[in-house]
Here is the input.
Amino acid sequence: MKKLSIIVPCYNESKSIPFLLDRFADVIDQRNIEVVLVDNGSFDETRAVLEALLPRYHFAKTARVEKNQGYGFGILSGLRVATGDFLGWTHADLQTDPSDVIRSYDIITKSPCAEKIYVKGARVGRPLFDQFFTIGMSAFETMYLQTPLWDINAQPNVFHRCFFEQWINPPHDFSLDLYACFMAKKLGLKLVRFKVTFGPRQFGSSSWNSGLKARWKLINRTVSYSSSLRKSLPS
Here is the structure.
């Protein structure tokens, strides 16, 4: 078994993948880590790029989702084939550096009670509008779910396998980050945050963040899912 499995969902990320793999190779070194790159129903050259490049990287393997069923579904597909004692995920778009995964790994493995730790980034260096959006969503979730929640979509996320094994019906969309944070709080895990630089996307464009209309859709989906999470709170 690997010590850490990090899942990277790739949806039309053929241009990012070569740089992503090279960067992981730089930072993993001799650590017992596997990177599971999930072709999450891509319709660009992602599949071909993965097939061509993965044999060059001893730490990498892939999982394929034939038809995209959401960001969360891609991550869950990777988690189910991962072999690590510790699990987690980050993005493929290079907005956060793969070295942040190593920082997360070091934090959790140095903890005296690693099974009760959830390590998550806290984004810095973002545009002002994005910061205000995050503040608003975080304040809403904190009040609505009666649980302190902040910068829910920050990367990376790393935790012990036993936490993942307690999940029940996790969502298949972008609400997976919210679900994981909420469950960590509900199950009494200590949430450890550290600053990660969040830069501009290196290639292509976001599959969801395409303007105010897209953000409004995200808000509606998040509020809807938050309602179902709230129902799970003890009365």
